[in-house]
Amino acid sequence: MSFTDRHLGPNENETAQMLSDLGYESLDKLIDAVVPSQIRLDADLNLPEALSEHEAQAKLAEYAAQNDVYAQMIGAGYYDAVTPPVLRCNILENPGWYTSYTPYQPEISQGRLEALLNFQNTVMELTGLDIANASLLDESTAVAEAVVMMHRANKKVKNGFFAIDSRVLPQTLSVVKGRADALGIDFVITDFSDGLPEGDLYGVVFAYPAHDGEVRDVAQLVKDAHERNALVAINADLLALTLLKSPGELGADIAVGNTQRFGLPFFFGGPHAAYLAIHKGMERNLPGRLVGVSQDAAGKPAYRLALQTREQHIRREKATSNICTAQALLAIVAGAYAVYHGPAGLRAIAERLHTNASRVAAGLSEAGLKVVHDSFFDTVALEAKGRADELVAQALEAGVNIRRINADRVSISVGESHGEELLARLVKALGGTLPESAEGYELVAELLRTDEYMQHPVFHLYQSETAMMRYLRRLSDKDLALDRTMIPLGSCTMKLNSAAEMEPISWPEFAAIHPLVPENQAKGWKLLIDELSGWLTEITGYDAISLQPNSGASGEYAGLRAIRAYHEDNGDTQRDIVLIPQSAHGTNAASAALAGLKVASVATASDGSVDVDDLKAKIEKYSDTIAGIMITYPSTHGVFEEQVKDVCQLVHDAGGQVYVDGANLNAQMGLAQPGQFGGDVSHLNLHKTFSIPHGGGGPGVGPVAVGAHLEKYLPGNGYLADAEGNIEGAPLPISQAMFGSAGVLPISWMYIAMTGAKGLRASSEYAILNANYIVKKLSDKYPVLYTSTETGLVAHECILDLRELTAASKVTAEDVCKRLMDYGFHAPTLAFPVPGTLMVEPTESENLEELDRFIEAMESIHAEIQEIIDGKVSVEDSVIRHAPHTLEDVTSDTWDRAYTRSQAAYPVASLHQAKYFTSVGRIDGVGGDRNFVCDCPPMDAFDIEYK
Question: Which of 263, 427, 513, 522 could be a cystine partner for 432, CB 3.0 to 4.6 Å?
Fold first, then answer.
């Protein structure tokens, strides 16, 4: 069998049966009826022939072999770290962790929520602050989020500016400048050697340590800033905080940074989980996700996402940020790394790094090199007039990459795996001898940390591999991921993430490459990136692409920024209005606001398409101020809009650009190309369409593809930024690394290499087949809100309308989601894009047996609703309103409910073969927000024994 045969769910006989039920004699006939002829491709995509799993991995291994793996001591935001095998095998390589979805349905997500809470609590403990989020995308964008947050939160200063430390990463300066320029926020870059700059300050950002390693005491500067009503953010190395005073103790309002060195490989720049921690009182402005503690129906502690969860759908362009994807999988690894090592283990690692860095400094000082800073953590800056290139070359001869800061300076960052032999070899290559010990480079006494941290039992119980293995298994057993069941989330495309695709990301020839190595050491990465970029432009019909955006929302932002820059270059600075359909994903509007654009809504027609009459009215109203339109195709309502080319043409005639959201590209591959039917720019979701797994909420990859006229506006390389954050001849970056989350790109390369043009088209065709089969089977019980007016068909997803059932029974769509958990299913997408509905996307990877199992569950739930409508049971006493049911519920000594234990736990016969129980009952979400808690609850709160 080919990989495509393995990837697609229905076999030949199942396909024939499903088509028969739909009334079509062939799959081609069905696709002809679904996809409008005016946008159909008339030939296959120009892609290489599909390879087998073995052949694809062999070719990728050839690319990997062209990367040169050296000891990486470059630093600059990426540090040598060791991934404990127990974490690599049981998290990164475990589908129970990497195939789960964002924990919007908390009852089936308690394991990953606990793991994310461990991450949050690690950050809170080490930063000395009250609240931390459950990860951001990378360090540079996290600092940018902190700047925007301080601008929003500081009510005492009007018309002020920011001051940012010149010694944060150059990538960070560039990303922050891009974000600030788009929003019209003024800021200055300074090293604070002469104190704070004069004027009204919204806030300041300090580096701790600096990118060249220096550790300095900023406590007085923090006090000075507060006296001037400024907020303070400290960009801190989390591992260094095991030795150094925390930002909280220094008086900071915000701490921000990344957790890459907590067990994550270089990954050629990402994905790595960034963090942001704050004082209490600022949580309503905190971007990203936040795990909180509430309780379930039985009063048991239960975790859930709190406060900001999907707030873009509520506040749209007024949202706190456009963040939708986090780095959940990487945050889970980082949190588990902290749990595995505990505070003593983390401190021991930090002490060893500092001691070894001091020995390197002492040895090279004796050799005549000037050590620039006496106080540093793990990074030693060296000065030798005009000799930087010579020193880099000498280190390379010893098999080590070090960093060239400028013609006169280099730096060396000591990492976790760097042992005695390597350090001695490096120092010898640079002309010195590594001493057994070193004096004179101690951390400043006033900055040494003296408080206790990470005292919760979770950081002390699992330091043996056996204990950690069992803890991770216990957590994953609480969750419902793709390894157990179909996840029918509309707009989210939870398809197969094959083992063959996943394996190469752990190969050291890819994972161990620092993103700032010389180009000749990353030839294999360049081959992969160039080839993948070419394939993606062919699939979408565009001319160029940037892989830099590390989430779909980042891709939106990059595309909109390109549109804005294009208009400004043409002298159309007044074009600042983006037309967005009311049904659009909330990040569309939030991204537009982030790019400095204004939003005007376009109404939805009765068939779910863009209301062309309202579009014409908005074009007339806003005239030459229109920058463009953002549309999703197929529409957010799950239909191919016949008039999409007309919509694009209307906007083009008005002088605007067309942004086509790529969230639903899984219905188009090989069938249509947005770059050919009217799009000027699209972002793609590699974590949806191209098989990168969701990982419990990230990593995401959101490349932005453009027409030739927008190519020069694609984001540049932030590492090349000058002292003012600018990049010569290139736009400012939107993410820290040039290729964003490059570490997971081999997954999409493998997917396309193994499917080829025919396999990609088949993926889209079977996604459409599966969705229409569900519509056919369920539409008599759950009306489908939008279908084609001519054929009654949908694209690759459908919206089940529960509003009439709710009116008759008071059973809500959320009730149905909770009841589906008893049947062993993740819920469909709830209340988006229409409140009171469920959006279902089965994907092409589900076979007929699984589709029928879902259909059976939905039909059974409908029968339970009908009993309520018929008056046989009240909604308050119903099995649906009490769902989900835990094992503890149905095995309790007392049972006083209006239905049987069997109906609660085993409503259909297939559950006797495999049964999943949630670990908690229905969670009180409102109560969790009103009584907000994000600390790990004490162990005895769960009534379990522990030592």
Answer: 427
- The distance from CA 414 to its chain's CA centroid, rounded to whole angstroms, is 29
Q: Is 192 left (phi over 0), alpha (psi -120 to 50) or beta?
A: left
CA distance 233 to 172: 14
pTM, entire model: 0.96
In this predicted structure, the answer to whether residue 21 has a pLDDT above a threshold of 70 is yes
Q: Which CA distances in Å does 631 have to 37, 201, 601, 609, 644?
A: 19, 39, 11, 10, 9
Domains of the chain with bracketed CATH: 41-54+522-756 (3.40.640.10), 73-482 (3.40.640.10), 760-930 (3.90.1150.10)
341 is written with which tokens?
């090592």
Lowest pLDDT segment from 56-65, 268-277, 436-445, 690-699: 436-445
How much is the pLDDT for 832? 86
Are residues 139 and 687 in contact, defined by beta-carbon separation less than 8 angstroms? no
Alpha-carbon gap, residue 863 to 869, rounded angstroms? 10
Report residue 944's pLDDT band, with 50, 70 and 90 as the boundaries.
very low
Q: Exposed e or buried b for every residue in 743-761, given b needs 16+ CB within 10 A? A: bbbbbbbbbbbbbbbbbbb
Please compute, for residue 410, the number of CA atoms within 13 A of its CA located in the half-sphere on the CB side.
26
Residue 608 zone, left/alpha/beta (φ > 0; ψ -120 to 50; rest): left
Helices and strands per DSSP (H, E), number in the chain? 30, 24
Tell me the one-letter amino acid at 313. H
- Start-to-end C-alpha separation, the chain: 52
User: What confidence category does residue 587 fall into, taking pLDDT thresholds of 50, 70 and 90?
Assistant: confident
User: What tokens were used for 836?
Assistant: 């009171």
The angle subtended at Cα 128 by Cα 125 and Cα 134, nearest 5°, is: 55
Of 493, 516, 513, the residue nearest 505 (C-alpha): 513
In the chain, the percentage of residues whose pLDDT exceeds 70 is 97
Give backbone dihedrals phi and psi of 788, rounded to 5 degrees, phi first.
Answer: -60, 130
Contact 550, 702 (CB under 8 A): yes
pLDDT band at 82 (very low <50, low <70, confident <90, very high): very high
Taking every pair of Cα atoms in the chain, the longest distance, rounded to a whole number of angstroms, is: 90
> What pLDDT, on the 0 to 100 scale, is given for residue 303?
95
Q: Which spans in 503-611 are helix H?
A: 508-511, 523-540, 552-569, 586-594
Cα 536 off chain centre by: 20
